[in-house]
Design a protein that fits this description.
CATH topology of the largest domain: Heat Shock Protein 90
Radius of gyration: 42 Å
Strand order of the largest sheet: 4-6-7-9-8
Number of helices: 8
Helix content: 40-55%
Distance between the termini: 99 Å
CATH class of the largest domain: Alpha Beta
CATH architecture of the largest domain: 2-Layer Sandwich
CATH superfamily of the largest domain: Histidine kinase-like ATPase, C-terminal domain
Structural class: alpha+beta
Number of domains: 3
Order of helices and strands: EEHHHHEHEEHEEHHEE
């Protein structure tokens, strides 16, 4: 038997090319089957077709190998895509977290500028923006501190001069009026300083919010303003004590000035939402037609005809400090008349939106 040749001059070839096979017209043609391999060979000078059977195991092993190879390649492609996605999404997630921190009044650290070129460029631009904001904030604080010092120094001298003069004894009304104006100027300066600072650099410490509220209510009671207290259970949590006292004092002073009657403070914890709620309310004239959101803007003064006018920074300070703690401030009309201010602060592990009561 001669071996099968692959060239066109071969004397044996497959059935798919009978036109060029010289023995195609002499040997009976047998079509190959799925389980055999056929070829042409010369035996004793006569062309013959030979079919060689292929074991079924060979077919099964080939199919299984192909399937496993396809599954392996698919899994490798998915794993590669996942790694690439994580590589791209990680700096984007850091950027989103830093942007949320800036919007809440915080100071994020510098973002890494490695990774894909476009994301690195965005991170670098964000770092430059936060550096510019920090510099502007420091410049503004320094400017206001200088103004406060330059104004309070002559104010102190003026108070001293009035106390040493004969004005208090000869014209007590004028002296009291002048002292009142000086106190107003000092209050305005302090509110400007509070608005600029807002407690961003104060370190949070674990404290008892209800105890702080009770102490402030006792101070107001000593001045003749009684608050009804309904203090629910609040577990100790971390907050900035001076900033939190500023929030409570501003809101309690607001209801004393504008509400006058029906003064009340309520607190409770929404365990499902992991949030603390503080409501400071009154039974005064309420908000009327004033937009609650507009009242929280800087220099927006509330109060109707005949009511005292503030500097317009109190509620803006409250909202800014609340945001610094991850919370919110909401102003709304009170059922039965009056108005109420609601502060919602997150506890560690919060998982739901603001609680409603």
């Amino acid at each position: 038997m001669k071996p099968i040749s692959a060239g066109p001059s071969s004397r044996a070839c497959g059935v798919i090319c009978p036109q060029i096979c010289p023995c195609a017209g002499k040997a009976p043609i047998r079509a190959p089957t799925a389980s055999s391999v056929s070829g042409c060979a010369h035996l004793s000078g006569e062309p013959r077709w030979i079919a060689l059977p292929v074991p079924e195991a060979a077919h099964d092993d080939g199919l299984a190998t192909a399937l496993l190879l396809s599954l392996g390649l698919g899994a490798l492609a998915i794993a590669t895509a996942y790694v690439i996605q994580r590589h791209l999404n990680r700096p984007l997630a850091h950027l989103a977290d830093a942007a949320r921190l800036v919007s809440a009044g915080g100071e994020p650290g510098a973002l890494p500028t490695d990774g894909p070129t476009e994301i690195a460029q965005v991170s670098g631009a964000f770092n430059r923006m936060t550096a510019a904001l920090k510099e502007a904030e420091a410049t503004r604080a320094l400017m206001l501190a200088g103004i406060s010092h330059d104004i309070r120094t002559p104010m102190t001298k003026l108070r001293l001069a009035m106390a040493m003069s004969s004005v208090p004894s000869t014209d007590a009304a004028f002296a009291a009026s002048a002292e009142g104006y000086l106190d107003t100027i000092d209050t305005i300066l302090q509110q400007f300083m509070d608005y600029v600072g807002s407690g961003a650099k104060e370190t949070p410490v674990v404290g008892n919010l209800n105890a702080l509220i009770a102490n402030l209510a006792a101070d107001f009671a000593g001045l003749g303003h009684e608050f009804a207290l309904d203090l629910g259970h609040i577990e100790p949590f971390a907050f900035r004590p001076i900033s939190m006292m500023r929030i409570l004092m501003n809101l309690m002073q607001n209801v004393v000035l504008y509400g006058v009657v029906g003064l009340e403070v309520r607190t409770w914890t929404d365990e499902r939402a992991r949030r603390v709620c503080v409501v400071i309310a009154d039974r005064g004239k309420g908000l009327g037609r004033q937009d609650p959101e507009a009242l929280k803007q800087p220099f927006k003064r509330g109060g109707g005809e005949g009511q005292p006018k503030g500097t317009g920074l109190g509620l803006a300070i409250v909202e800014r400090i609340a945001k610094l703690h991850g919370g919110t401030l909401e102003l709304r009309a009170r059922d039965g008349g009056g108005a109420e201010s609601r502060i919602v602060l997150p506890l560690p592990g919060e998982s739901a939106p603001q609680a409603v009561r």
